[in-house]
Amino acid sequence: MRDQWGRAITYVRVSVTDRCNLRCQYCMPQEGVPFLPHEAILRFEEIVQAVQALAVCGVSRVKLTGGEPLCRKNLPQLVRMLYDVPGIEEVTLTTNGILLPQQAKALFDAGILRVNVSLDTLKPERYAKMTRCGKLDDALAGLRAAQQVGMHVKLNVVPVRGWNDDEVVDLVRFGKQNGVPVRFIELMPVGLGAEQRGLSNAEVRDMVQQAMPGFTPFRGQTLGNGPAVCYGWSDGGVFGLIGAVHDRFCTSCNRVRLTADGILRLCLAHPDGLDLKPYLRAGKPGLVEALQQAILNKPLGHNFSGQQTDDRTMNGIGG
Ligand code: SAM
Ligand code: SF4
To answer: Would the CA dihedral through 116, 187, 248, 4 be positive or negative?
Structure first.
């Protein structure tokens, strides 16, 4: 269905957990955050019920996210359940990759054909610092495991000033060499992101232009469900820019988000949402109608102006 601004809403990002095995500087504090109690987290059946209702409203694609979605047990089972929902055409995943070596095959067999791996640096020590506890080799092993089982992999990079702003070109080269599109996401002032400064798309593009000129707008396959503006070289290699802050891509926004505790968020930047738990748990009737009303009233756009907009950290919203 379309919202009141005429945008077709076809895509939901489902956070399956707020927990994570990393503590990225711009996402989660070192000491962690007060995690949702176990009983607050939607069960698979409840997630499926929510997605069924969203599919009635026109949603056809699901992205599993978190926290770290691979920290949720039996994820391939959820993937299968979601593919059984009439109207759901594709289920994909965004992950830090650490647990992919163990899980890639089962996820692929369940139908995860495309995965985004978040990787902000290629330097082992920096990776350990940026994620506070991660090993670069584990993330790279995850990336390779996904490729080996046959998944299409994309890298997601958040360029942050003073952290990895000197690696933009290296990351694009790495992607080009390994046949993996690289997408740069502007740091959003959500949660801890408000305490750091990100690079703008324009800065990233200029850096790539200086070091690797000759790219042209890439009009081949789109780079996922998102609003990435993509560029490629005639001899291969693609990078994309997601102007989460500066480009105001809100006019073409096609998505809603379901938090791990069952709140439908209409916009990443707006804390309000529709609590689905009464419908999913207490038998309140009218879930589809409530979703339709919420989607209709999806906010027109974000108002990121450098200030924090939300109490929740990104791991709680589902990035
Ligand atoms: N743990 C998984 C991962 O890292 O891919 C999935 C959840 S994570 C919240 C999803 C994406 O959000 C990651 O690519 C992460 O880099 C990005 N992210 C987290 N905080 C952000 C922020 N403040 N601004 C922009 N992107 C952010
Ligand atoms: Fe975890 Fe992803 Fe947040 Fe990093 S960005 S702390 S991997 S949820």
So the answer is: positive
